[in-house]
Write a structure and sequence with these properties.
single chain, 422 residues, alpha+beta, Cytochrome p450, 3-stranded antiparallel beta sheet, 18 helices, 10 strands, 53% helix, globular, Cyt_P450, Cytochrome P450, coiled coil, Cyt_P450_sf, heme
């Protein structure tokens, strides 16, 4: 191809990109973002979004580089929440509890505070510790499936994925069964914390839920200080790293984070994964006959339809991303879902392939903010999926009309109805 032809191709791509002012909040994008990701990646992989001027990054190599870069910081959502106080009509109320708690969420923290807190908390979520939980997780999955076995149908989200996540986190923290339903209600409210566009009323509801969940947890922490148990709260109280200890506010924030973000994302990982397998009969059949492939299968379904689709970073210095200059202070939206479907990294990226090798997806991010609960999410998904298809081998979708949660950050189904032989 001659130079003139190359120049013409570049011009056409640029014009196509300029004309492509896609809307992140379009219902079609919400239902299936992947065609849009492909178009962006091909026409303008570092795209200036027409709303707010944020940079949208879709290529795997670029997303990976920014995640590992020392020239970016996390989005200052806690400050943004705090600033919402001035819009409250009732000045006796505020969003201070929510603002402070989110400021201690690891994914909104930066070094050196992030480094210190991560060192204190990370040991509790190591793969070795999580592996010891397999028998407990298996017990919970068996109990949940026993409840629906006689019906011949179930909602994967409401009957398995969501209650499993709540039960696992509750057992991890040492929270009794009788409190789990109330905790689930609080977490349904708190799950919106990751979304960039949240109404003032929703923030008020999240603040109230945070106050209530922390009031409950304070009592539990006080009990564990007097009488430590084999649970995470007791371990967090005792945690030490270079003579540092966690404050009660830190412990409250960590526990709130587990329920607010951990429950939602793990539940969505299971729901999205089961849907993907049911839509690819050859893959689920292979997994039935070769259950030892479950670890590889879970990595593939996490790549294929990531529960977290986007992360935001702020440039602290000018940096080059994909031949574009992003200036200090500008916002970068990293499309994890797009990176995980990049054909330059994953051959035939739109195909679900549980035999895929070298599956270095970025569904759990990368760098210093790599997801703390990644090991736990993997184990929960492995056990839930393998147990489900073993106990209900003829499972199938009960409806093709599926509705996705209205969020541009979290990708998950509102419900996933399935049927099986009683």
């Amino acid at each position: 191809m001659n130079q003139e032809a190359i120049s013409t191709t570049k011009t056409e791509k640029l014009e196509s990109a300029k004309a492509f002012n896609f809307n992140l909040f379009d219902p079609k994008f919400n239902a299936n973002p992947y065609p849009t990701y492909h178009r962006l990646r091909e026409s303008e992989p570092v795209h200036r979004y027409f709303i707010g001027g944020d940079w949208i990054v879709t290529r795997y190599a670029d997303v990976k580089a920014v995640l590992k870069s020392g020239c970016v910081r996390t989005d200052d959502r806690p400050k943004s929440i705090q600033e919402r106080n001035k819009y409250l009509k009732d000045k006796q109320k505020n969003l201070n509890t929510l603002a402070y708690t989110t400021s201690r969420f690891l994914f909104y923290m930066n070094p050196p505070d992030h480094t210190k807190l991560r060192a204190l908390v990370g040991k509790a979520f190591s793969p070795v510790v999580v592996e010891r939980m397999r028998p407990q997780i298996q017990e919970i999955v068996d109990e949940l499936l026993d409840k629906v076995r006689h019906k011949g149908s179930m909602d994967i989200v409401a009957d398995l994925a969501s209650p499993l996540s709540v039960s696992v986190i509750s057992r991890l923290l040492g929270i009794p069964k009788e409190a789990q339903q109330q905790l689930h209600q609080w977490t349904n409210v708190l799950s919106r914390i990751l979304d960039p566009l949240v109404s003032l009323e929703e923030y008020q509801a999240m603040n109230k839920a945070t106050e209530e969940i922390q009031e409950y947890l304070r009592t539990l922490i006080a009990e564990r200080e007097k009488d430590p148990q084999e649970d995470l709260i007791s371990n967090l109280i005792a945690a030490q790293e270079q003579n540092d200890r966690l404050s009660q506010k830190d412990i409250l924030a960590i526990c709130t984070l587990l329920f607010g973000a951990g429950e939602e994302t793990t539940g969505n990982t299971i729901g999205n994964g089961i849907l993907a397998l049911l839509q690819h009969p050859n893959q689920i059949e292979q997994l039935k006959t070769e259950p030892t492939k479950i670890q590889n299968a879970v990595e593939e379904i996490i790549r294929y339809d990531s529960a977290i689709q986007m992360l935001t970073r702020i440039a602290i210095d000018n940096l080059e991303v994909g031949n574009r200059t992003i200036k200090a202070g500008e916002k970068i939206v990293l499309c994890l879902g797009a990176a995980n479907r990049d054909p330059a990294q994953f051959p035939e990226p739109d195909e679900l392939n549980i035999n895929r090798g070298q599956n270095q997806h970025v569904a759990f991010a990368d760098g210093i903010h790599y997801c703390l609960g990644a090991a736990l999410a993997r184990v929960e998904a492995q056990i839930a999926i393998n147990t489900l298809i073993k106990q209900f081998p003829d499972i199938k979708l009960a409806s093709n009309k599926l509705e996705w949660k209205k969020s541009i950050v979290i990708r998950g189904l509102k419900a996933l109805p399935v049927s099986f032989t009683k």
